[in-house]
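Example A, followed by Example B.
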Amino acid sequence: MPELPDIMLYLHALAPRLVGARLDGLRIGSPFLLRTADPPVADLTGRAIRDVRRLGKRIVFVFEDDYFTVLHLMIAGRLHWKPAGVPVPGRSGLAAWDFRHGTLLLTEAGTKHRASLHVVRGASALAAHDPGGLDVLAATPEQFNGILARESHTLKRALTDPRLFDGIGNAYSDEILHAARLSPLRLTTQLTPEESERLFRAVKQTLTYWIDRLRTETGDAFPEKVTAFRPGMAVHGRFRKPCPVCASPVQRIRYAENEVNYCARCQTGGRLLADRSLSRLLKQDWPRSLDEWEERAGRLAGGATGAGESFGMESQPVRFERTFAVTADDIDGLGHVNNVVYLRWVQDVAAAHWESATTPAERADIGWVVLRHEIDYQHSAKPGDQVIVRTWVGPPNAATFERHTEILRAADQRVLARARSLWCPVHPRSGRVRRIDPALHDRFYAR
């Protein structure tokens, strides 16, 4: 979801293009976008835009005669500046603001239709869309500390609650907490005065740095690469990559549709924070500290490669593939392969890879359960397509194994989807977590 630095970047690009311009028309391309009926959209036609401003993570277009449009981009909504009159894209297009000198397009990736647009009139109607969070860039330390102490929450939850703080989301809260050297699960009521001051400075410095950096990188162009994952971020989106401060691997906690990224060495004194689903499954096998995590990973990685060798440094994963034909049963109501079919291909090719490298006795002794699937859908497969599903394994981590999969259209080798899965080996009869002999894992690698 675009957060405060991203919204400020949009405002920086929108103001010189829109302020003072008259709206020729607002085209709504999706029935899911517009959430109001009165005043009607047609009332905006011919009215000039007086200002563009921010209301939390929402973008407000201020029209003459006290009209406002309130746009919430949510996770996947993005704005684009195009030549006047361009058509609204069929699948991803939601709306188009038409002006004499150009068109502002709103698109949304995916199918969940979360972006929203409200047309309102009057200051009180606009105020109803304000979540009420503190403007952290203008706040004093006393105001900031007062909000923190109001209720007992984890720092991660407090920073991302729009009713408490204005414009901070999942990405920049990770960066702020890393800069402040504080655990995301630390309770707000447990902070010392020194820690509260450190957090206040980190909020202002982190957000100001990224606002200035994004503006400098974009210049006068319209921002087309608004994303939560940016080069130069310290921890967000950098799971297992080295922390820029101490070089320890960045860790994560997965919950719902989000994840928390943090550095155990810098933020928690080396203690690993429990990932609920994973730590419950692994129980006593879950490492309690970064040192224990590194020690276990080193034992698993080096067990069959010889003393002193680093797993993967002199070996590469063996890539295994299968070809599947798209059948009529695979097609959804839009004429494309259903998303569930991609997941089935991911699991089928993983099972085939395991069977190709193991004996019947080994397969009878080791079962696998999936802890997590992550799939990025990039292009559609259609009836009659042949698809290549290619998979390989990553390095072991304690009692879990990563598996990577890419799905390509055979005709042009275009990547349709990429997946990352986390598998856990278990005893087939008891269902308890078990470990894999490193020598068996090495069969999936070539030197």
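Example B, a separate protein, is given below in the same form.
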Amino acid sequence: AGVPPGKSRPRGSKSGYKPPGAGGDSLFEIDLGLEDLSANPVELKTWAGKLTVVNLWATWCGPCRAETPELVKLSKKFEPLGVALIGVALEADPVEVRAFMRAYDIDYPMGIGGKKFHKAMVGAGVAMGGVPLTLLLDAEGHVLESYLGMIRAPELVSDVERYLK
């Protein structure tokens, strides 16, 4: 379901992405071209077997900056539940990302996604309509939920708790 022309989706709303069914693309099985802050390859399958929250953001994005303190709190809340929270800075300079992480006391894993990452995500059916974009992945790497805009913590917590059952 798309947004009618001339209308915008409310902040933090579900993006309308429909998760793949059985046999759909697993983001754990695709080479996303994701790198760590030292330019080493990172694969999302590192977190296979866990419910995983992937937050896509950019250093220049105001809403991304605004939601970061909440994401830091959520990562601490999710960790004892066995839920991973991963950040992916899009088209970013590692120096800027490190400074951002220090400024916001981010201690969850962080990667950098370039053009290959964007192309791979679109190829997997993820609507890359802007940032911030947060994805909730099942233990096999399939997208369960997608949130475009600033994350609403109660909604994400509710969805995580629902999928943990």
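On Example B: The CA atoms of residues 1 and 7 lie 13 Å apart.
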